[in-house]
From TrEMBL:
<keyword id="KW-0560">Oxidoreductase</keyword>
<feature type="domain" description="Nitroreductase">
    <location>
        <begin position="21"/>
        <end position="198"/>
    </location>
</feature>
<dbReference type="InterPro" id="IPR000415">
    <property type="entry name" value="Nitroreductase-like"/>
</dbReference>
<comment type="similarity">
    <text>Belongs to the nitroreductase family.</text>
</comment>
<dbReference type="InterPro" id="IPR029479">
    <property type="entry name" value="Nitroreductase"/>
</dbReference>
<dbReference type="Pfam" id="PF00881">
    <property type="entry name" value="Nitroreductase"/>
</dbReference>
<protein>
    <submittedName>
        <fullName>Nitroreductase family protein</fullName>
    </submittedName>
</protein>
């Protein structure tokens, strides 16, 4: 069980409301700030997400200060300026294509803590590490993108559980994101940014296609 601040500072633990009441909010109360500790807690909670082979190929850049928001704005497409101009924070979720380089640490820790046997740990290393060490760049990007999307979706919902609203954003200059945040563009791939804050608008109640029309039972 991941420790959460939700246990202590629960604002909304109504799953139905958190999930089905979620809408993209694009205008926020610009006077509101969220403490760095709470932003960090939300990221921690979001990283309870599953990931391929537990590689956890995600990375987060939080733009909450004026300087950070200015950097974030410099990569955004203009139609996303209202979000950065009013949100409490914009969290960029990036995929880490080199997460396998620290992969041993996570399983060694689980082993040291007695959660898995040394045999199980070695089996995991033998099965998965060669796969990633010899993987193509495309494979690593795809894997990191899927992992990061899992965490990003959790972050959208966790923001609501903390009493905030959010908007996922991919309308940015993807080729500029990593370098603008002083990250290695060869290693980190932008996946999505999430604007978070207190809502200052009633969001559009967007429709969905009929699930039956999108589903094949085989
Ligand atoms: C990958 C992704 C990228 C998105 N990029 C943007 C964006 O750049 N700007 C924006 O206003 N909304 C963006 N959205 C939000 C979608 O427009 C929104 O999720 C969709 O219209 C459904 O509405 P809902 O979120 O209110 O359910 C994005 C959503 C996703 C999942």
């Amino acid at each position: 069980m991941v420790e959460t601040v939700l246990n202590n500072a629960l604002v909304n633990n109504d799953f139905k409301d958190v999930m089905f009441g979620r809408r993209s909010v694009r205008r926020f109360d610009a006077t509101m700030t969220i403490p760095a500790s709470e932003l960090q807690a939300m990221i921690k909670e979001a990283t309870s997400a599953p990931s391929a082979c537990n590689l956890q190929s995600w990375h987060f850049v939080v733009a909450a200060s004026a300087a950070g928001k200015a950097k974030a704005k410099s990569v955004l497409m203009p139609f996303n300026y209202p979000q950065i101009d009013s949100c409490s924070a914009m969290i960029f979720v990036l995929g880490d294509t080199k997460s396998h380089e620290v992969y041993r640490d996570v399983w060694n820790k689980a082993c040291d803590e007695g959660k898995i046997t040394p045999e199980k740990r070695d089996e995991i290393f033998k099965t998965f590490l060669p796969m990633y060490e010899s993987a193509s760049k495309e494979f690593l990007i795809e894997d990191a993108t899927i992992d990061s999307s899992m965490a990003a979706m959790q972050l959208l919902l966790i923001a609501r559980a903390h009493g905030y609203e959010a908007n996922p954003i991919a309308g940015y200059a993807a080729d500029k994101v990593a370098a603008t945040f002083d990250l290695d563009p060869d290693r980190f791939v932008p996946v999505v940014a999430i604007a978070i804050g207190k809502a200052a608008e009633t969001p559009i109640a967007s429709n969905r296609y009929a699930a039956e029309s999108l589903t094949d039972f085989i």
